[in-house]
Design brief:
Blueprint: H1 2-32, H2 36-71, E1 75-78, E2 80-84, E3 91-93, E4 107-111, E5 125-128, E6 131-138, E7 142-149, E8 162-170, E9 183-185, E10 199-202, E11 205-213, E12 216-220, E13 237-241, H3 245-250, E14 254-255, E15 260-261, H4 264-295, H5 298-313, H6 316-336, H7 343-367, H8 371-379, H9 384-395, H10 397-413, H11 416-421, H12 441-449, H13 458-488
Antiparallel strand pairs: 1-13, 2-8, 3-4, 3-8, 4-7, 5-6, 5-8, 6-7, 9-12, 10-11, 10-13, 11-12, 14-15
Helix pairs in contact: 2-13, 4-7, 4-10, 5-7, 6-7, 7-10, 8-9, 10-13, 12-13
Length: 493
């Protein structure tokens, strides 16, 4: 009897345990089973992720394809030779001992000879004896020059030496060219501007230089399938100019239509405005984040946070006119005498624009620091300031660095502010001059793309090479941000 009761009890106990296990399994299955809404959200997120990746790949492919077209294109520019500018003749070095010029001097003292001022403008060339110099600055009775230009060597010059102004003159054949002729007669010394194997252009005909004989060019007519035709005296000779990576990243003149393919002026202006923007936004944004996260009362925080976020909603074109009218004309010109277009004003206002980005992300980073770290610091006797600077900021460093780099990326990609306030022409200055106008990569793309450009011209395709350069720059900043965030990230339970 007792054995039957025990067997019945054991069977009942096993059945109860089995039923309880089945209920737990059913409950677990219920908890793990996704709801229909979650499945829809998951599908949308997956689709958005795939779409963003495909969009990025398409942008890279499109920019890369057009950039390759740019580097395989060419521009035709007038062949020019340097000649004496007769309108600037008649000047000499000062006749006294001060007029002597050593081989290393860069200041040239000029005898005005009763004339009101010097005609040599910055960027022009002059010749003293056998040396050619480039003018970098014009003063009342002197010039600052770069010595030994155009393959000439710097040398000493005596007082009273003749100073000749130079100019570039287009090269024209001095004799008519028949349709079957293979020799082009040039002015004296003009053949030095050419070399065998060079491709030239006259009207609609392309020619290949096979040899140079004195002042004559020996050419192959009808090159690249063009038609050989007769050309009259005065037809301009055009040279072929092709961009390459070395020229693109090392030369300091950007004028694709004239065969100058150095993108450095655009990169320099972009980095100048970005540097000023970060110098403004980092202390202001980080200070605002520290105050709102650590010092402000909940009421003050709720009041100031929306005010800070208002800056995000201001259109950038409004920022641009604010920089031009108020910052430049109202503040910088009276104080420092800057030009009407300058990178300083643009950089200051771009920095103002990215303050909310740095501040809001820094607030989130500091808010993620556990409260226990602060309490432990207070328990050890640290003050509020010591806790913020020695505990909270180091713990939130990865998030703050990510905020700064994101702000830099946004400053690099800003368009309307720099297009309105910085200037509308590429301008290289070394050392960098923040008081004059310059053009950033985004500003140049904005200006050129709005013009009348023929499809597949060198100007048109240059837009995409600049766009690819800008993409690579921002992508590199993003990767740096990711690496720094992973390196200094703090994990808390």
């Amino acid at each position: 009897m007792e054995q039957a009761i025990e067997t019945s009890y054991s069977s009942t106990r096993r059945e109860l345990l089995s039923q309880a296990g089945e209920r737990r399994t059913e409950q677990a299955d219920i908890r793990k089973r996704p709801r229909p809404g979650e499945q829809i959200i998951f599908s949308l997120l997956l689709a958005a992720g795939i779409l963003s990746i495909l969009t990025t790949l398409f942008i890279v492919y499109f920019l890369g394809k057009e950039a390759i077209t740019f580097f395989s294109s060419r521009a035709w520019v007038h062949s020019k030779m340097v000649v004496v500018n007769e309108s600037q003749a008649g000047f000499n070095l000062r006749p006294n001992a001060e007029g002597a010029v050593s081989a290393g001097a860069t200041l040239i003292l000029i005898d005005l000879g009763g004339k009101p001022q010097l005609p040599f403008t910055p960027g022009s060339y002059l010749q003293i004896d056998d040396e050619i110099m480039r003018v970098t600055e014009r003063r009342e009775q002197s010039l600052v020059v770069e010595r030994g230009q155009m393959a000439t060597s710097a040398q000493a010059h005596q007082p009273g030496a003749l100073v000749l102004g130079l100019m570039e003159d287009p090269i024209e054949p001095i004799e008519a060219l028949a349709a079957d002729a293979t020799t082009i007669k040039l002015p004296p010394r003009a053949s030095a501007e050419f070399q065998p194997g060079q491709v030239i252009h006259i009207d609609t005909e392309t020619l290949l230089i096979t040899a140079i004989a004195g002042d004559n060019l020996v050419v192959e007519r009808g090159y690249e399938g063009t038609e050989a035709r007769a050309h009259e005296v005065g037809a301009f000779i055009e040279e072929e100019r092709r961009p390459d990576l070395i020229t693109y990243f090392t030369h300091t003149v950007w004028q694709p239509q004239t065969g100058n393919f150095g993108v450095l002026p655009l990169i320099e202006a972009t980095l100048m405005t970005t540097a000023i923007a970060i110098l403004v936004a980092l202390p202001v944004g980080l200070s605002a984040a520290i105050y709102l996260s650590e010092y402000a009362s909940p009421r003050t925080r709720n009041l100031l946070n929306p005010v800070l976020e208002i800056l995000v909603g201001v259109p950038t074109v409004v920022y641009g006119f604010f920089a031009l009218q108020f910052v430049t004309q109202g503040l910088l010109q009276p104080a420092f005498g800057v030009a009407i277009y300058n990178t300083l004003s643009a950089g200051l206002v771009v920095g103002l624009m990215i303050v909310p980005t740095i501040a809001s992300m820094s607030i989130d980073a500091m808010g993620a620091v556990p409260r226990g770290l602060r309490e432990a610091s207070y328990g050890l006797g640290a003050t509020k300031l010591e806790t913020v600077t020695k505990v909270v900021l180091p713990a939130a460093l990865s998030g703050i660095v990510a905020a700064v780099i994101l702000g830099i990326s946004r400053a690099v990609g800003e368009t309307m502010i720099v297009a309105i306030a910085a200037g509308n022409g590429p301008n290289w200055s070394f050392p960098p001059n923040f008081t004059i106008g310059a053009e950033t990569m985004t500003g140049h793309i904005n200006r050129i793309s709005g013009g009348d450009l023929s499809y597949q011209s060198v100007d048109y395709t240059s837009i995409f090479s600049i766009g690819l350069t800008l993409f690579i720059l921002t992508f590199a900043l993003t990767q740096i941000s990711t690496a720094i965030t992973r390196r200094f990230r703090e994990s808390y339970e």
